[in-house]
C-alpha cells in the first residue's frame, strides 16, 4: 500500500449559475469580444427569470458605473466577470439595481444585481449574460464548462476550475 501524504490535492472551484436560464457556449454569444474569448474562457446564460447572484464566495473587485456588469475575485484567485446582456452599457444604469459595492465580501448565492429583464429585452441588443474568467489566460488553472443546457441559480455548476 502506498500513501501520498505529501501529494497536494487538486483544488477545485465550482462556479454556479448566477441566474436561471438556458446555458449556451461562450462561442455562441453574438459579440466577438466574448465569442472569440478575447476576455477569457467562459459560458453564457440566456436568462429566463430572476436576478444576478454571486456564483462563488469571493470579493467584489469591480462594479460597472452603468451597473450592467460586476467583477468578482473568487477565493481561489479566479476573476469572474458577469456581464448582464449585450450593449447594456448604453442603458446608463436603467433596468439595474446594484446590491453590492467594490470591496464587499460575498457568499455564493448572495444577491448582486436586481434586473428588470423586460426593460433589458426592449432596450438592449440581447439579454444573454456572459460569465467570463478574465484571468483564464494566465494558464495557472484549467477550466471545464458544463454540458448542462439549463441552469438554476445557485444549483447548476457552469464552470469548474482546477489547478493544472
From TrEMBL:
<protein>
    <submittedName>
        <fullName>PTS system, glucose-specific IIA component</fullName>
        <ecNumber>2.7.1.69</ecNumber>
    </submittedName>
</protein>
<dbReference type="InterPro" id="IPR050890">
    <property type="entry name" value="PTS_EIIA_component"/>
</dbReference>
<keyword id="KW-0808">Transferase</keyword>
<keyword id="KW-0598">Phosphotransferase system</keyword>
<dbReference type="InterPro" id="IPR001127">
    <property type="entry name" value="PTS_EIIA_1_perm"/>
</dbReference>
<dbReference type="InterPro" id="IPR011055">
    <property type="entry name" value="Dup_hybrid_motif"/>
</dbReference>
<dbReference type="GO" id="GO:0016301">
    <property type="term" value="F:kinase activity"/>
</dbReference>
<dbReference type="GO" id="GO:0009401">
    <property type="term" value="P:phosphoenolpyruvate-dependent sugar phosphotransferase system"/>
</dbReference>
<keyword id="KW-0813">Transport</keyword>
<dbReference type="GO" id="GO:0005737">
    <property type="term" value="C:cytoplasm"/>
</dbReference>
<dbReference type="Pfam" id="PF00358">
    <property type="entry name" value="PTS_EIIA_1"/>
</dbReference>
<keyword id="KW-0418">Kinase</keyword>
<feature type="domain" description="PTS EIIA type-1">
    <location>
        <begin position="31"/>
        <end position="135"/>
    </location>
</feature>
<keyword id="KW-0762">Sugar transport</keyword>
Amino acid at each position: 500500500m502506498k500513501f501520498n501524504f505529501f501529494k497536494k490535492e487538486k483544488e477545485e472551484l465550482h462556479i454556479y449559475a448566477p441566474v436561471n436560464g438556458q446555458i449556451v457556449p461562450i462561442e455562441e454569444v453574438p459579440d466577438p469580444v466574448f465569442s472569440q474569448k478575447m476576455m477569457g474562457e467562459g459560458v453564457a446564460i440566456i436568462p429566463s427569470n430572476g436576478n444576478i447572484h454571486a456564483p462563488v464566495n469571493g470579493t467584489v473587485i469591480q462594479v460597472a458605473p452603468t451597473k450592467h456588469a460586476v467583477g468578482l475575485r473568487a477565493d481561489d484567485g479566479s476573476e469572474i466577470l458577469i456581464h448582464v446582456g449585450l450593449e447594456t452599457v448604453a442603458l446608463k444604469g436603467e433596468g439595474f439595481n446594484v446590491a453590492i459595492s467594490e470591496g464587499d465580501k460575498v457568499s455564493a448565492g448572495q444577491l448582486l444585481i436586481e434586473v428588470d429583464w423586460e426593460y433589458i429585452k426592449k432596450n438592449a441588443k440581447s439579454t444573454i449574460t456572459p460569465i467570463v474568467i478574465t484571468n483564464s489566460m494566465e494558464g495557472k488553472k484549467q477550466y471545464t464548462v458544463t454540458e448542462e443546457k439549463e441552469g438554476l441559480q445557485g444549483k447548476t455548476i457552469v464552470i469548474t476550475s482546477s489547478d493544472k
